[in-house]
Design a protein that fits this description.
Layout lengths: L2 E3 L20 E3 L13 H16 L5 H15 L2 H4 L2
Antiparallel strand pairs: 1-2
Helix pairs in contact: 1-2
Length: 85
């Protein structure tokens, strides 16, 4: 079973898991519930990317707005029928 960074996962109660302590902290996949992306995830996802990449790689404050624009473009152009696995 793979391990994934907590910053990318939701808990079984569907509450976002933030970065807690060491960025290398991991969680087993059976401890999470993956859900499809919705527009309501936008702000949380931007904030988590901004925080993670600032702490781990020193990205500046321009990174969050870039992620936000990418998500906005995705939301505007996504075709759910092409996303089915």
């Amino acid at each position: 079973m793979g391990l994934y960074p907590l910053s990318l996962l939701y808990s079984a109660t569907e509450k976002p898991l933030g970065l807690q302590g060491d960025l290398s902290l991991n969680c087993a996949m059976n401890d999470v519930q993956l859900t499809p992306y919705t527009r309501s995830d936008h702000a949380w996802l931007v904030a988590q990317h901004q925080k993670l990449y600032q702490q781990s790689d020193g990205f500046d404050d321009s990174f969050g707005p870039l992620v936000g624009q990418i998500l906005t473009d995705f939301e505007s152009n996504a075709d759910p029928s092409s996303e089915a696995g």
